[in-house]
Structures are given as C-alpha cells and as structure tokens.
Amino acid sequence: MIISIASGKGGTGKTTVATNLALALGERVELLDCDVEEPNAHLFLKPQIERTERVDTPIPLVDEAKCTFCRKCAEICRFNAIAVVGRQVLVFPELCHSCGGCMAVCPEGAITEIGRELGTVNSGHRGTISFKNGRLRVGEAMSPPLIKKVRAARDPGRITLIDAPPGTSCPVIAAMNGADFILMVTEPTPFGLHDLKLAVEAVKLLGIPCGLVVNRADVGDDKVFAYAREEELPILLTIPFDRRIAEAYSRGETMVEALPEWEPKFLRLFADIEAIIERGAAK
Questions:
Q1: Is residue 11 over pLDDT 90?
Q2: How far apart are CA 196 and CA 190, in angstroms?
Q3: Chain centroid offset of residue 155 CA
Q4: pTM of the predicted model as reported, rounded to 2 decimal places
C-alpha cells in the first residue's frame, strides 16, 4: 500500500502528519521523504542514516570530430538544451530533460551521454521503521528524476508513506502518481482553501482516492469544511491549534511521542484510509 501525503501549499503540517503516522504504525511502515528541495522529515523521525547514494541524470556529450553540424539534435530538442552555432555544438545541461532524443537522431553517432549530478538518496532506519529521503543539489531544478529514484527504492513488503512536495506542479505529480491513496493536509484559511482546490483537481486527474486532514482546525473559518462537504471529500482527522503540539514541534518532537493520546488517533486515521481503499477495490 502506498499513501502519498500532500498539500496544496507549504506549512500546512504535511510532514507532521507523515512522521506521526509512521511512528504510530511502527514496524510495518517505511517513510520516503520526496520533498527533495527541502527534506525535513529526518528532523522529527531522527533516523540512523546508513547509506548515501549519488544520483545522476544523463546529458549529451558531443564528439565534434564526428559531428557534421546538421542541426538535427537541436531541432528535436524542445527545451533548447543543445544548439549548433556555426561549427560548434553548445550543450546547456540545466535545460536538458534527459530524453535521449538528440542521441537517437544523430546520423553520425557523434552524441553519447555522461552523468550530471542531481542530488543524493539517503537510506536508513528509525528502529523498525525504514527511512529514505532525497536531497536535491543546490541550484538544480530537475527534481522529478530524483523523486522517482527515491520511490524506486521502496520496499513492497511494507506500507509506504510518501511525504510529497507542496504545491501542484510536476514534482508533486511524481510523488503522487501510482499511489493507492492521497492524504491532503490543509488549514482553514483563505490561502489553505485556494491551494487545496488546486491540489484536489490534480488528484482528480490522477483518479486516486483522496481524504483530508485539517490542521489548526479551530482557527480561520469554516469554508474548508464546506468545500469538503461539497466535494464529498472525507475529513479523516482534525488537529487543533494546541500550544502543546507547537512546543513539541519546536523541540523536534512528534505528537505521538510528546502527547501519547494522539497515537490511537493516527492509527484510526490509517484504518479509515484502509477502509476507503478496500471499498474502492470492491467496486
């Protein structure tokens, strides 16, 4: 089972929900932090990192001794990552999407591929909980390949929790696509509602069942709750604006550790997700 925990905007408590759910489930679970531009689940889970793997993406390498400067490589590239200027071929690695099209169309076989560093994947554990995260190289814009690398390392024998990036762009889709359930985390504010609507529309396109956690549920207004009723989006957990939770967060502690009464609530959350998935499978 794969549960992707997402949010339309940052700061709603997505990582809080992911880490608390992981700790509540214990040995059955693995947590994949796919928020590769700003991974922070490790700050709360505090795993022991055992292995770090560099992740590269292929980019073209042109042998100008073989090149006839026919421009076919430049013509096929829709991202302008390769250009022919006179008797010289220019490659712009940061624009390359690693599709291999330039290499495929080169009639002279003048293009091969070399690796460009995207970032790293770190693997470890917290007790019986398996943990992996990706960390994008500073200045790198191409996060989806790194997210896919983190996901490729999942253990199919465990319940997989994915801490997705915030927003609704390509990195989020890479973290949500193929999941069995999307757990959206929001807050009852105008910004929270606006970005929740965008995220829910993206989930609809993917055709994945979805539920909602409302964090800081007793601030703001009731428009998020009204929207959830209109969309028939089940609210599976509400978390109050509680000073004790905020204090635990500031110390890098999870709710289930600092406030043990929250562990059965997160277990109930998982049971509700399981029930929704089973009902969908039975249709």
A1: no
A2: 10
A3: 17
A4: 0.89
Rounded to an integer, what distance in angstroms lies between the CA atom of residue 258 and that of residue 20? 11
Residues 6+ apart with CB under 8 A from 254: 16, 19, 20, 23, 44, 45, 248
pLDDT value of residue 190 = 92
Indicate if the pLDDT at residue 38 is higher than 70.
yes
- Ordered DSSP codes for 156-186: TTSEEEEEEEESSSHHHHHHHTT-SEEEEEE
CATH code of 2-55+119-282, in short, is: 3.40.50.300
Backbone φ and ψ for 162, nearest 5 degrees, come out as -110, 120
Q: Which amino acid is at 56?
A: D
State the pLDDT at residue 266: 97
For residue 283, the model assigns a pLDDT of 67
Which residue is associated with the tokens 């109050």? 240
Q: Tell the CATH topology of 64-109.
A: Alpha-Beta Plaits (3.30.70)
Q: In angstroms, rounded to a whole number, what is the distance separating the alpha carbons of residues 191 and 166? A: 13
Beta pairing class for 129-136 and 111-126: antiparallel
